[in-house]
Specification:
The structure is a homodimer. Chain A is an alpha+beta fold. The first copy, chain A, has 2 domains: about 250 residues, Malate/L-lactate/L-sulpholactate dehydrogenase, NADPH binding domain (Ribosomal Protein S8, Chain: A, domain 1, 2-Layer Sandwich), CATH 3.30.1370.60; about 40 residues, 2-Layer Sandwich (Wheat Germ Agglutinin (Isolectin 2), domain 1). Helices cover about 40% and strands about 20% of the residues of chain A.
């Protein structure tokens, strides 16, 4: 592990994307989002993505020099065509369009098509919260979940995130996918020879299973059964169906077809909380809200009650002060990419 | 069971609310929402609510002659003061304000305070969908869920609903609460002497339990653990914290303090889909979306894959044609209320 400052890691990541064909400005924007993911401790969605994004950039499955365009449908409603850009570039464009419109209009909705994996949602939510905007942000994704009661993968484990600003403290940040657990957790159970709860996944025929091996051949189960299924569908309807992007099985696989555009879609819904009351009012309510939750005695004294976002924001504080730990293999990869030395 | 036409049931329910002190116009609006709940088969949120709403109306815990006011914060953002009206009256007001604004602005957000239980969400979503609006609608509720890892009830089982219009077929309608199961399901398990999965509820100390008896003394668990906890908090932040309503433990109990205003809050987010593409385009995509899901072979041949809303909308078709079945006790209650004969 090596600890890098935010600036060091951003510059290094930017260089990698410049070497992959992006303009310095675009590369900076993408690096910004991925480094924020690292600051939150979301390493699976952080700078390690240089590798997978890079793989597609090199075979032109992602467009390194896009012309992202914005269509104004109404004063508060916008469509963005990502021109198959790197996802975080489209995400940042959507966020900026939405913030500008919501400032005056009170609310803005931006729907994006022709995009790619846009990183985790919390970075966007935090940037918006810092400017006083509450957010609902979502994206569709490659299919990994079967319809509730179905027997093959037809919908994605769509990420959905929320933010609420706090003028004098930590904002509320929630960033979740729709499956009960990530696939990695099932792989870990398999490796350690343990069984899994039958609420995590189904076998290849769509039947809930306690065998991690069968689960790895099957499909992730959504939270709350039919409820999470419905939620995941709704995210895809906004992010994919209404945006003009691909949806459900129309989303091309990231792995199988690296040279074909995925045509992913995202949505950004922003609400200007500064028009609802002054910052004293909001800060007092946010403080009280968190205090009520923290005040509930923990069932396990080792695990106090938290408000979503606390873990990530505390980690960010730590990393900004003490540096961001980066795995040495990953650091080497970034250094190689930044010099234009890519794997075969 | 007696079968009533939609008109018969609406008129009877309207009469009951007029007898409880509402104006004929307001009573009609409330009846309209509760009868739609019956049409969807959501009997727990239907005309049986005349009894509980009536109980509070009679002790002035709900205001029968409210002056609901609307504040325009920005062209797309509104605050509604419900003046402690019957919830569905506030809900319909919010919906109408939102539809009017979203028609021109593309999007509208309405946040309501000083309200009460506003019925199920699907009626609002359907009315909006019929006019071309996609919806996200939520409300907070009396506390029944402990914070994730906590040990006492500090948040409500907040309902959250979504709708997406379909110009040539059934809209998408999702209406869910945040608990894995409703309390009634745990009561049923207790009555039949069965154990329950440990994902449904905790005991009084916040520890997950398989005993329905201990669960009834404890708290409902949210879907996906910390995910559902976060979702329920977010609903309360929009519906309660940002709207200016009560939130978390500030929400007064419906049962313990029937004469005190609950100060519940709601939010309505509407997106005008007619500005995104023409109706042919949307109808084709909605048809294709549903077809992809229906086409997944059912794991259990008796339970084909469905799209959220199908069950309710099919029931509505049936009931509109063949009448709405109403339990005889409930019918008698409605008839008594409509004549001003209330229980002691």
């Amino acid at each position: 592990m090596t600890k890098l400052s935010k600036n060091e890691l951003t510059t290094l990541t930017q260089s990698a994307f410049v070497a992959l064909g992006l303009s310095p400005e675009d590369a900076r924007e993408v690096a910004y989002v991925l480094v924020m993911a690292e600051l939150f401790g979301l390493t699976t969605h952080g700078v390690s993505r240089v590798e997978s994004y890079g793989e597609r950039l090199r075979v032109k499955g992602i467009n390194p020099t896009p012309n992202i365009t914005v269509e104004t449908c109404a004063p508060s409603l916008f469509k963005v065509d990502g021109d198959n850009a790197v996802g975080p570039l489209v995400g940042m464009k959507c966020l900026n369009v939405a913030m500008l419109a919501a400032k005056a209009q009170g609310v803005a909705v931006v729907l994006a098509r022709n995009s790619n994996h846009f990183g985790p949602i919390s970075p966007y939510s935090l940037l918006a919260a810092e400017q006083g905007f509450a957010t609902i942000i979502g994206s569709n994704a490659t299919t990994t979940i079967a319809p509730w009661g179905g027997s093959d993968a037809r919908l994605g484990n769509s990420p959905l995130g929320f933010g609420v600003p706090n003028p004098k403290g930590q904002p509320f940040l929630l960033d979740m996918a729709m499956s009960v657990v990530a696939r990695a957790k099932i792989r870990n159970a398999f490796k350690s020879g343990q069984s899994i709860p039958d609420t995590w996944a189904t076998d290849a025929k769509g039947v809930p299973t306690t065998s991690p091996k069968d689960a790895l051949d099957g499909f992730l189960l959504p939270i709350g059964g039919h409820k999470g299924y419905g939620l995941a569908l709704w995210v895809d309807m906004l992010a994919g169906l209404l945006s003009g992007a691909a949806y459900l099985t129309h989303v091309k696989s990231w792995l199988d077809e690296p040279d074909l555009p995925q045509n992913l879609g995202h949505f950004f819904i922003l609400i200007n909380t500064q028009l609802l009351g002054n910052s004293e009012w909001l800060a007092q309510r946010m403080h009280d809200f968190a205090a009520i939750l923290h005040d509930s005695e923990a069932a396990d004294p080792q695990k106090p009650v938290i408000v979503p976002g606390e873990i990530e924001l505390n980690k960010m504080q730590d990393y900004l002060q003490n540096g961001i730990p980066i795995d040495d293999d990953l650091l080497l990869l970034l250094q190689n990419y930044s010099k234009g030395h890519f794997p075969k």
